[in-house]
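Put briefly, the fold is written as integer tokens. The lines below illustrate.
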Amino acid sequence: MQTDEQILHRLDVMAAQLGELAERQRAKDELWEEAVPVLREALATAIVQLDTLDKQGHFAFLAELARVGRRVVEGFTPADVRELGDSIVAILDVARALTRPEVLQIARDAAGAMHDASGAAPMGALRAVRATRDADVKKGLGLMVDLLRRVGHGVRTSAERDTKALDRKEKLAELLAPRRARMLPAHAAAAPTSVAAARANGAPQNGATRSDGHLADPGSWTRAVAETVAREQGFELDEPRWALVDAARSDFASMHASPNIQRLTQVAGITTKDLYRLFPKAPARTIAKIAGLPKPAGCL
């Protein structure tokens, strides 16, 4: 058994511990009492600042900026971003060249000439020939000829790139032709004159489309319906467009979701620029309508 002395010692230790706990709690209470007014003042200041930023339109600007960011992510592939990164040096070089003082002075002079154009006297052919004797006119003519030469070279180079891109699309259509043939229904016939007639070839008559204009049942889709919907959108389905429609349906069958612009460029191996060339207005949603698929996520 413990002696009275041991019990008293333990009681003293416990009392000391309780005193230490009480002191810690008192310190916490004092700290909290001092912090509450500071926190309240900081919160009030933050509310005022946030309200001021909101009235100035900062939050609306950030919301629109976020929407632009979503559009960029949906509309461009990582390859497009890499291409932009590769071109950023050239873009900065052009900006630096255009902002040189002498170039800006030429631009100001040209703007001044346009501003004073109403006061310029008419000039006939003979007077124009005589004006070419002026050294400044000669220099300007030489600059215009050089400018036309460089622009013509750029146009010719761009046309050659477009031709190569068209060749790539034709190869894509050729590669996807077997897949399209497998997806062709046995009862598909010539394109009907209306969507109602097209759906009579295989799509259900009742509830065929939802309120957003997309086919309610992707399984009831036919190529005849696709051709009719495409004509209602203002164009015929050629080989490159058929290749994208087939690629969208194939991707939907595996992913169970309609592909957006970024996904289409990946599964079809096509650039965003070429995609918009084939389907200029809302390409992802247009392709989904033609392919009998639901509206892609994120499309308006």
Q: What stands out?
A: Confidence is low (pLDDT under 50) at residues 182-207. Residues 259 and 296 are 6 Å apart (CA to CA). DSSP finds twelve helices and no strands in the chain. The two ends are 84 Å apart (CA to CA).
